[in-house]
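Re: beginner question about structure tokens

> Can someone show what the tokenized structure looks like for a real chain? I only ever see the sequence side.

Sure, here's an example I had lying around. Input first:
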Amino acid sequence: MQTEREAVKTRARRWANALRDISDPLEDLPAVKKAVRGLLEVCKNEENLDDAAAEGAVGVVVPLLKKLNGGDMQAQEQPTTSGVEELERDICFILGLLAIKVEHQSAICEAGALPTLVSMIRRYAARNDVNLSGVPAQTCRRTSDAITNLAHENNSIKNKVRQEGGIPPLVSLLHSVDPKVQRAVAGSLRTLAFKNDENKNIIVDLGSLPLLIQMLRSDDTTIHYEAVGVIGNLVHSSAPIKRRVLEEGALQPVINLLSSSCTDSQREAALLLGQFATAAEGDYKHKIVQRGAVPPLIDMLGNDDNQLREMAAFALGRLAQNTDNQAGIVAQGGLSPLLDLLETCQSNLQHNAAFALYGLSDNEDNLLEFVREGAVQRINECELVVQASRDCVNKLMKRLQDKLGLRILGQILYVMQSSQPSGKQRIAIALSQLTTKEQPSGAQLRLMFLEKKGLDILLEMVQDPHQPADMQKQAAKSLYRLAESCGAADRASVDDIAPQDPNLTILGAHMVNNPQTSDVTFVVEGRPFHAHRVQLLNSSEIFKTMFDGHYREKDASTIPIPNIRWEVFEKMMYCCYTGGKVHVPPELAQELLEVSDQYMLESLKHLCEQTITEQLAPDNVSAAFDLAENYNALELSKQCALYCLREHSDVAVLKSGTGTGKVSTAGYSILLQKLAPRLKEAITDAINAKADAMVS
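And the corresponding structure tokens:
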């Protein structure tokens, strides 16, 4: 049995052969009609087109079309034989279907179809009959469709249509009252104008614009869709044509199409308005908004059609290059749906949304809405697909930071203080995420986070066991950002904490436990450890009191050291003898921290803090904080708190205790309740230091 494809090829071969066998089609029109209709039925299924072409469909129907007309030039004349025009219609239908596939376009043209098709279009234009109907209208439409499909994305064929004189009759046929004819010739002009400047200029110079603008107002969605498409292709990359289109009065009917029931027309209208908005003359950005374009464009942002949303964002992005428009778009509700687009995973939607938001951010008055509506957080959380979008968002955030001047900051802080708790939280989070090391100033940081209690709001959020997980995470992230910006997250160096006096004696590592010139011996775990009073006196106040005060150790030659292991004591001595140039291994860090506190060795304490900080993990950070608090290790306390902010997700999951990866806001908040005082102290001190440094 034949497969389905074999059956298709058999039918195509049968009808093609039948046409080849007919020497004079005009003498046997019924047989020709039957064969053409049979071949047409095969081609109506797009999956069959390659097989039909392979069986010679092009090679039989193009010569047939020429024979029916007695040559290309005679195709301009109305056929005198009954039934010929129906045959022409069906052959053009076949050619239009075959031309859907790029690989068949050249074959059809090489067979000589294009001159005949253009001559046929001339035939109908020459009749000057706007009421073209019946078979002539059908044939005219199928001829135009064939030209459209042949020229689709094929600039060489577009040029040939122009050279054959095909554009003037197509423009003339725009006057037809038959909507199918009008739509078909508009489709041809749309294709011929796409990225072909010579064709564009001819179409415009032939007076097509008034007709096309009239078609924009048609109630027939298929008509105004083709009309807006033609105008869009004419305007693209051509400032002079754009100007002529606007002068002819296209603006309002295009705006009206934003409310069309046809989403394709809406999309084309939005694209065209975006192009109009870039017109160098006439302040069309302002005019487009004045005439009511913004509300429907904003509505389109929420449509299910992604192409429609993309074009709406494109248009709004171009309109947002005007200061008044920027405020108007936000005031009419454009901010939130643009953020929704930014949060999609589709690069085109993201990029157009990012560009529009960047434009909106240029108006200082919009900063309050960006902050109040949580836009800053949402922008920072977006995972952007392409680098261009990331660059645009980075510029957007920098612009928002630059806009945070005293006037608008005063408004934001007023709203923060007068808002409900959720509003206060959103604003505090946004303000913290707008901070950097460079800006705002120390005085502004003090105003925002200390005087107006922004820091307290964020701290309350991370300590509240009833806080939603996403808000708790944002608060933790924001606190860490603030700590980085004000300098609280900076790690202090040993020299910062325990600066060395260059006049003090440093004997060096080779003198550790060296009996040479030793004048005191410690007994550690029953073993002697030789030391030098002059070095120890310079190392800490405890040793100075021990050897220079009224304690018995002052004159003792041996001093017992209880409760300290030998290797811990040895590390402590190396720290004293080298001025803090000693490695603290993780396994000794806790014991050395205790010893450093006991003997007031600040350089050793900080070395221990550094080692423990580097080993912090969700399962030990709480114990490390307790250790720091027990031994007055303030830097370690701060680093534990910062770790919990930076690694919120991992710490919160561990605190859930379920082992399922579920976040526990309650467990995290309990931990932060313990850490918050140190965190507040560190950030407060850093902000005040930054503000005071400006004054001095």
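Each token stands for a local structural state, so reading them left to right follows the chain. The mean pLDDT is 91.
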